[in-house]
Amino acid sequence: MGAMLKLVERNLHEVQVGGNRLLFHIPSSSLFASDELTGNVIDALRQRDCSPAELTRHLGSRFAADDIGETLRELMALEVIHDGSPLTPEIGLQRVAQTALDTVVLNVNTGCNLACTYCYKEDLTAPSAGKRMSAATAEASVEMLFAESPAAPRYNIVFFGGEPLSNRPLIEHMVDWCERRARELGKPVNFAMTTNATLLNEDLVDWLDAHRFGLAISIDGPQAVHDKNRLTIGGQGTYEVVRKKVDMLLARYKSRPIGARVTLTRGTTGIEAIWNHLVNDIGFAEAGFAPVTSGNVSAFNLTPEETATVFANMKALGQKYLAAALENRNIGFSNLHQLLGDLHEGNKKALPCGAGLKMLAVDHQGELNLCHRFTGSAVPTFGNVHHGVNKAALHDFLSQRLNRADTGCAACRIRNLCSGGCYHESYARYGDPAHPTYHYCELMRDWVDFGIAVYSRIMAENPGFIDQYITPRKGN
Ligand code: SF4
Ligand code: SF4
Prior knowledge:
Helices cover about 40% and strands about 15% of the residues. By secondary structure, the chain is α/β, with parallel strands linked by helices. Strand 3 and strand 4 (about 30-35) form a beta hairpin. One iron/sulfur cluster (SF4) binds near residues 414, 421, 437, 444 and 445.
């Protein structure tokens, strides 16, 4: 170690939490407490490059030479400091050469019985004009999944729409069919669905429960907020009917916790009041918030000021989450819960999500899309379930995002958590799904710093919360 040592700033992010100095190791998304010696090494190298001998002389009056040597070795192994030898490429892969599909999203009907003002779905139609997927296409989609990934330990089938329950016969057929095929293959199969709840009844709820559907309900908050946008085709607010159905659902559904999914559009930034209503008044297990910043109807997009307020309000609710977590209670705030899960697992994401990689979404004609948000869009599809996946096109697309050279993401401190952001957000904003979502990077970085601070407090003061509430969730 005679060469000059340098700090590798792009691999290191420091966060102060309650007077403690924490080191966020960017390549692995892992968090380390920085001891006094580590802090001193970093500070010295931030002043100027030094040789190990110079550093040992500089710090020798306060620390033992062996400890200094050990710390330098550890920091070099993490590539937080280096001696000029080449650094390990962060993303080993230059190109996506294969996918690991385990999820297929079936867009069972483009029709929806509601007419929510802000809906992003480009293929959305009224129920009478809805284009329904046939059983042959749905079965071919799942056979494609089995054939593409014969070694997957389990398979996930997601029903999407429009409103998926507007094609209930196909869902019922597919659940029986998938369970039979999965038994033949000796593999478990999971079902999931996001629904507006309006078509639920007791029999249907019991049937969904018996098949352990993972359910998310689209609901935007208290009546005044929900009824602003979530309307019937005739223009009436839907809160009352949704509330009645959800009360029935939550009273009967036993197999899995049910979450609420909130769409935040212009004029709505009051996260805490919405969460309070959904979790404490109604009884959802959790509420997750999707801020709309780039929808195709720009009048519904949050303004930049509102987007900043949404993030500030997410942090305020996050403080409540933290206070409850220190008392070993989970208050059901999905956005923060998910971020803590990623930090806990040291999730390093080369790509932002599983779209195209683990999951494909099938439209009513059997065309293959990156995810449910792209069905019916102008983005070219990646093959068809009847003729096969266009792997060359899919791998080209994913490889484009994998390559961060010449993008702002290359040196971004949250590059392995954000990975350039949601493809659909990019498509809606820039007309190009491969473009990074640059429009709220600072807010995202600040949100991740907040998550790091919350995570470190929980780990220091009540680590049992992580074991009880964060770790098991991943196995769901
Ligand atoms: S999109 Fe922005 S926040 Fe996300 S990785 Fe790229 S530069 Fe960072
Ligand atoms: S592309 Fe965006 S909407 Fe689609 S799965 Fe990924 S994060 Fe979700």
